[in-house]
Design a protein that fits this description.
The structure holds two protein chains of two kinds.
Chain A (H helix, E strand, L loop, with lengths): L2 H20 L6 H25 L8 H17 L5 H24 L5 H19 L14 H8 L1 E2 L2 E2 H19 L1 H11 L1 H6 L4 H27 L11 H11 L11 H20 L7 H45 L1
Chain B lengths: L7 E11 L2 E12 L3 E5 L6 H9 L6 E6 L2 E3 L4 H6 L2 E4 L11 H5 L15 H15 L14 H13 L5 E5 L7 H16 L3 E5 L3 H7 L2 E6 L2 E7 L5 H9 L17 E9 L8 E6 L3 E6 L5 H9 L6 E6 L2 E3 L4 H6 L2 E4 L3 H5 L6 H6 L7 E2 L2 E2 L1 H14 L16 H13 L5 E5 L7 H16 L3 E5 L3 H7 L2 E6 L2 E7 L5 H9 L1
Parallel strand pairs in B: 3-8, 3-9, 6-7, 7-8, 13-20, 13-21, 16-19, 19-20
Antiparallel strand pairs in B: 1-2, 1-4, 4-5, 9-10, 11-12, 11-14, 14-15, 17-18, 21-22
Classes of the chains: A mainly alpha, B alpha/beta.
């Protein structure tokens, strides 16, 4: 675990402790399970974003993709009678296609990731609204399809399945980024794409894969969200989710310049953001201040991190300096 | 030059601690207007730190600075500028989106009287005389992006002169210049000296110090290593000053043992010079030096062979088998590797650790089912460290903490694990110290004697002649001629290069 991760963990625990002191309902099983469910839902696409950010890219269309794929998933089942496993597969295939498209535009046509995915944000949201004629794609089949319901919104031993999915993907992502050759290549491409090319790394393929991974995880998350909300209002569903994801990744130590970050960090970042949301509710802070609280905490966290880093550098400097002064005095006194 | 009084500057007992080392230990240095002082020392000897003290960007922990008779504990950048201290840094960072006048007067642009807009005519009037004095063949209105490296250097000097400079500090000013351009720069140095400017000349090219230096100050391990007065400035004395011993057999070509042809290009046409097909052969066991002026297409040829750039035609063969063009992985699979010219931009991941850098091109070899074996990684990194005598206390620290010479060894170490058949080195010793140079040469020799083919691009004549078994000279993208070891001389190479 990185030192940054430990700092973040301490912050999460501190905020949690404070909320518990003010309102003990925070640690009630019901509240914990609900918060955990949200952590699972938001965590899936935050990990997705992290894979793109580590290549020095950005994915801004996550919220719109969640809306579009959610609408399609529901419509396929509710209006077209498609069996849900088939609808599930179609959504995942579509998500991979979106990832491939973004990766292709970025690596082959050399467009900036910000521009490509900003256009994606606008386009997918527009299509989702047009597709449903701006109506809400509703659900009545929750009880008709108990298996689907159980898989995506059920709980095992009180633990929401979304959290389990998040845990599984987080562990996979950790191994992928921190232990595999592909993970090294991701970090290398993000840190210095030119040097990566000189090492024989197929940088274009690495970048495209990152966008495909991101879109795939977003697709999985879209189904969880559709099943969670039971109705998808295409103009509002998933709004700003990409910003949650970016915030979680930045909190988790991912640099927007690419090449660094840890999966443990982004997981803790997601937890912190959801605990903050919960804090706003439990402490009776007007919910209109929700974003302001989140923004302030992220800003304070990032400032504290840089200041703490600078402080440690200075202390390290002073320690070695006095040690070196001892050593270097002796010969120079004679000479 | 204005009639500003000549500078008198003394650094006395300057000491500076860095987090992991004593960068400067009781260093003293004096310089007066009208003299050229060569500052030499291996990388990490403290030259850059001393420069930063002069420029006011770092404050020394101990010692004092006596400038024009006034004593201070440190300078601020503004004071340094006001005192007439100016720099031309090794790494030129011109603003390519501005013209020459805009670069020279950046931040000091004259404003028009009426609206306060930038007065371009006045800028040109101020910059033109400076360019004339330097003998520049470009105009104040020339875009910086159109200048060659040598002209960019002149532009930087013009910038320094525009501030009424009294002490000009040149850091490795000739490392990317051709011979003729270097001569021109040395002439400028002599002219400025005649005008009463003090010049501190930092370089690894000892011949240049010999040519213009009035005095040489050596630094070693952050301390004064001694001084040479004008009569005693010669190569051997300077090398002794820098490394504290004689370098025996500094340049030794490998024992020639003609192996089979390893690399052959057939009508290879690069993007830079599509009309100039290149046919070249490199045999196992030889070091083929690739000489030529900057811009002759040597780097472009190397990039084409290594698959970084797509080729316009022709092909590359390794051991008589064609190599897919435009693909680095294919080139590596065929046994080719390239040590690029731009160490920091293309050769290394500066924030990554030594071990991560060393195994990067070879990760799949130490992976099982896609998982990196970190024990093997450390083992390989440790072996490379001892084989190349890389001075790094820890394998898990960022390579940005290492000196230039040691960084270059890390770039070389990356490739050794792949057991290359052809190793291309592009300016492999640029900006690295004598000790590290000797290591690089030894390694090239070892590789050649082990049967590999070595292709070395270099603009350092001494080096090309010293270590090559044969030399190919390029001119405007084509091979102008090939010289065998017996025919090697500076004149022979130059006449082919200039044509």
């Amino acid at each position: 675990m990185h030192k940054k991760d430990i700092g973040l963990a301490v912050l999460v625990l501190t905020v949690g402790a404070i909320v518990t002191l003010v309102n003990p309902r925070f640690i009630s099983p019901v509240n914990l399970a609900n918060t955990a469910n949200l952590i699972g839902l938001f965590g899936l696409f935050s990990i997705a974003e992290a894979f793109v950010i580590v290549t020095a890219g950005i994915e801004l269309s996550i919220g719109s993709v969640i809306a579009l794929l959610g609408v399609i998933f529901i419509d396929l089942i509710a209006s077209h009678g498609v069996p849900w496993p088939v609808a599930f597969a179609i959504v995942l295939v579509l998500s991979v296609v979106i990832g491939l498209l973004h990766g292709w535009l970025i690596t082959r046509l050399k467009l900036q990731p910000f521009v490509v995915t900003l256009c994606g944000l606008l386009i997918y949201r527009g299509i989702a609204r047009f597709y449903t004629r701006d109506g809400t794609a509703g659900f009545t089949f929750g009880t008709d399809l108990p298996m689907l319901e159980y898989l995506f919104v059920g709980r095992t031993a009180g633990v929401p399945h979304s959290v389990m999915a998040f845990a599984v993907f987080a562990v996979l992502a950790w191994f992928l980024l921190h232990r595999t050759v592909f993970g090294r290549h991701l970090l290398a491409v993000g840190k210095n794409e030119e040097a990566a090319r000189y090492c024989g790394i197929n940088t274009k393929r690495v970048i495209v894969t990152a966008y495909v991974l991101c879109a795939f995880l977003t697709g999985v998350s879209a189904i969880f969200f559709a099943m969670y909300t039971k109705s998808v209002q295409p103009s509002a569903h998933g709004n700003f989710y990409e910003l949650y994801a970016i915030a979680a990744a930045v909190l988790g130590g991912f640099s927007l310049r690419g090449g660094e970050g840890s999966i443990v960090g982004v997981v803790l970042g997601v937890v912190l953001l959801q605990v903050l949301q919960n804090l706003v509710n439990l402490l009776g802070i007007p919910s209109s201040l929700n974003f302001a609280v989140m923004g302030a905490v992220i800003l304070v966290g990032v400032i504290a991190d840089t200041q703490f880093h600078a402080y440690r550098q200075r202390r390290h400097h002073q320690a070695t300096r006095s040690a070196l002064a001892e050593v270097s005095r002796i010969p120079s006194a004679n000479g | 030059m204005t009639a500003a009084a000549r500078i008198s500057l003394d650094l006395i007992g300057i000491t500076k601690f860095y987090p992991s080392a004593v960068a400067l230990n009781q260093v003293s240095l004096g310089i007066r207007g009208g003299e050229v002082v060569g500052l030499i020392g291996e990388n990490g000897a403290g030259k850059s730190t001393l420069m930063k003290v002069l420029g006011g960007t770092i404050a020394p922990d101990e010692g004092e600075i006596v400038i024009d008779g006034e004593t201070a504990s440190h300078l601020t950048p503004a004071e340094a500028l006001a005192r007439g201290i100016a720099f031309v840094h090794q790494e030129l960072n011109p603003f390519f989106n501005l013209d020459v006048a805009g670069n020279v007067l950046l931040g000091r642009e004259p404003r028009s009287r009426r609206f306060g807009f930038i007065d371009h005519a006045a800028m040109a009037r101020r910059v033109k005389p400076l360019l004339d004095m330097l003998g520049a063949r470009f105009q104040p209105s020339t875009q910086a992006s159109e200048l060659s490296l040598a002209d960019q250097q002149l532009m930087e000097i013009a910038k320094a002169l525009s501030t009424n400079v009294r002490l000009l500090i040149l850091d490795e000013p000739t490392s990317s210049l051709t011979l003729a351009e270097t001569q021109r720069l040395l002439d400028v140095v002599r002219r400025l000296r005649a005008d009463g400017v003090a010049i501190l000349f930092i370089t690894h090219r000892l011949a240049e110090v010999e040519a213009v230096g009035d005095r040489v100050v050596g630094l070693r391990d952050g301390r004064n290593a001694g001084e040479l007065q004008s009569g005693n400035i010669n190569r051997d004395a300077m090398v002794r000053l820098m490394i504290g011993r004689d370098v025996t057999q500094f340049y030794t070509p490998p024992h020639v043992r003609q192996g089979p042809v390893v690399l052959r290009t057939r009508n290879l046409r690069t993007e830079a010079y599509p009309q100039a097909p290149v046919d070249i052969e490199v045999r196992g066991g030889e070091i083929l030096g690739l000489a030529g002026l900057v811009g002759a297409g040597r780097t472009e040829l190397a990039r084409a062979i290594f698959g970084i750039d797509p080729v316009q035609g022709g092909r590359v063969e390794m051991n008589d088998k064609p190599v897919a063009s435009g693909s680095v992985p294919a080139a590596i699979a065929a046994g080719i590797c390239l040590v690029p010219e731009d160490r920091k931009g293309e050769g290394l991941f500066l924030d990554f650790s030594l071990s991560e850098n060393v195994v990067m091109p070879n990760l799949s070899a130490i992976a099982t089912a896609g998982f990196v074996d970190r024990g093997a990684e450390m083992e390989i990194a440790d072996r490379s460290r001892s084989r190349l005598s890389i001075r790094a206390p820890r394998l898990d620290r960022a390579v940005s903490e290492l000196s230039g010479g040691n960084q270059q060894k890390v770039v070389l170490a990356k490739w050794l694990g792949l057991d290359p058949r052809l190793i291309i080195l592009d300016e492999p010793t640029r900006g690295i110290d004598v000790g590290a140079k000797a290591e690089v040469y030894r390694l090239m020799r070892d590789l050649a004697e082990g049967g590999a083919a070595v292709l070395m691009i270099s603009s350092d004549m001494e080096e090309v002649i010293g270590v090559s078994t044969r030399v190919a000279v390029m001119r405007r993208g084509a091979i102008a001629g090939i010289l065998s070891r017996a025919d090697l001389s500076e004149e022979a190479i130059l006449s082919l290069a200039v044509g």
